[in-house]
């Protein structure tokens, strides 16, 4: 094909229309539309984008196609999208395969000899690769969900976290029994079984937030994605859940350090989200929240002794939010035995060499100075030892 023919086919993409917005295909289109005088520079600009990803053009284009959030996937979540779109999909894969197998001189006739020639894989099968990815869309995802597994909400839109906390479950000693309940609930979510919203309640520094992040990292290959939602963004959750409803992946909406004042508008918003709104709960989304308050709402003695004629009803209203979490897991401050076990395991992980009796004595003294025992305090102590700080 000549350059104008490649360009015409590229511009005619329907199912894979989103590829035209990627830096790679925008740069290629620039090379295909360049006149003879500007061809060298346009090809060089394309190759700069390409080589930043891969010197193999076939692999780079195939990766872009596999991760594209296209019409077929959005409409059918990996299943059959109907004869019209399925036929278009097959035709466009034929074109992308031909384009991906083409070298520089096949795509841009007359490209200067001094430009590098990208590598290709002549026998690459785009149809087979796409069929395999489509079958595994429930684990791999598509679009930004294929490239990232942790997200935040920014101005109502999902923004990927490019460098998420790498916390792993096996790095969190001391609360295995508590954690197993949350793991079982998460596995139920991933397997499509009924799963509860979860409240992780307890003392500061006991690993509540770290547990949720570690679970997200552990199960990301199985199709789990984590979306962190701030308290002032709770009103955005219904629209977010609607947008995720047909997605084949499973999602945890993570609300960290949750608590409310009694007159907080967000209180009612979260109640409706957890249970009680006209919209049913999405099968692929669960809310995981952490809090240092068992009932989530700040309550004073004035609230109990004020002039409310129906004080018991008011208290029930304040307590009703935490009751809407189907699973509540308590992370209590560790006792001496558990704290020592945490110290010992963290010392092993960090390669800290110290007799256990000395480790316990120094670790206990450090905890007293830090305000009390907790896994966070134990980790800080071990990291200081690893760093060579004299304690």
From TrEMBL:
Protein name (record): ATP-binding protein
Organism domain of life: Bacteria
MF-aspect GO terms: ATP binding
Domain (AAA+ ATPase) ranges: 194-315
Keyword field contains Manganese: no
Keywords: ATP-binding, Nucleotide-binding
Organism: Candidatus Gemmiger excrementipullorum
UniProt-listed Gene3D superfamilies: P-loop containing nucleotide triphosphate hydrolases (3.40.50.300)
Pfam assignment, any one: DUF815
């Amino acid at each position: 094909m000549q350059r104008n023919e490649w360009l015409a086919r590229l511009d005619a993409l329907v199912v894979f229309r989103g590829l035209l917005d990627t830096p790679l295909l925008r740069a290629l289109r620039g090379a295909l539309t360049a006149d003879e005088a500007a061809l060298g520079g346009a090809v060089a600009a394309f190759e700069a984008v390409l080589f930043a990803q891969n010197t193999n053009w076939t692999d780079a284009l195939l990766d872009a196609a596999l991760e594209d959030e296209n019409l077929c996937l959005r409409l059918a979540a990996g299943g059959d999208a109907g004869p019209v779109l399925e036929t278009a999909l097959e035709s466009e894969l034929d074109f992308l395969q031909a384009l991906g197998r083409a070298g520089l001189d096949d795509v841009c006739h007359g490209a200067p000899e001094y430009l590098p020639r990208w590598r290709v894989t002549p026998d690459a099968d785009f149809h087979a690769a796409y069929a395999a990815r489509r079958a595994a869309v429930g684990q791999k995802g598509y679009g930004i969900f294929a490239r990232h597994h942790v997200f935040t909400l920014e101005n109502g839109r999902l923004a990927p976290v490019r460098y998420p906390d790498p916390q792993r479950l096996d790095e969190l000693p001391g609360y295995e029994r508590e954690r197993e309940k949350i793991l079982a609930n998460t596995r139920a979510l991933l397997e499509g079984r009924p799963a509860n919203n979860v409240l992780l309640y307890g003392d500061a520094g006991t690993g509540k937030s770290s547990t949720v992040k570690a679970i997200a990292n552990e199960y990301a290959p199985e199709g789990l994605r984590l979306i962190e939602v701030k308290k002032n963004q709770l009103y955005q959750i219904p629209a977010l859940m609607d947008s995720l409803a047909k997605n084949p992946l499973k999602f945890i909406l993570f609300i960290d350090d949750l608590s409310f004042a009694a007159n907080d508008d967000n209180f009612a918003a979260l109640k409706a989200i957890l249970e009680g709104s006209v919209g049913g709960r999405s099968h692929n989304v669960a809310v995981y929240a952490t809090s240092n308050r068992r009932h989530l709402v700040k309550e004073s003695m004035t609230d109990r002794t004020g002039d409310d004629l129906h004080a018991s009803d008011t208290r029930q209203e304040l307590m009703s939010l935490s009751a809407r979490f189907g699973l509540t897991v308590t992370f209590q401050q560790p006792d001496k035995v558990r704290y020592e076990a945490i110290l010992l395991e963290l010392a092993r992980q960090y390669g800290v060499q110290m007799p256990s009796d000395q480790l316990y004595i120094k670790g206990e003294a450090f905890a007293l100075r830090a305000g009390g025992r907790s896994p966070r305090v134990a980790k800080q102590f071990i990291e200081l030892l690893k760093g060579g700080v004299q304690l």
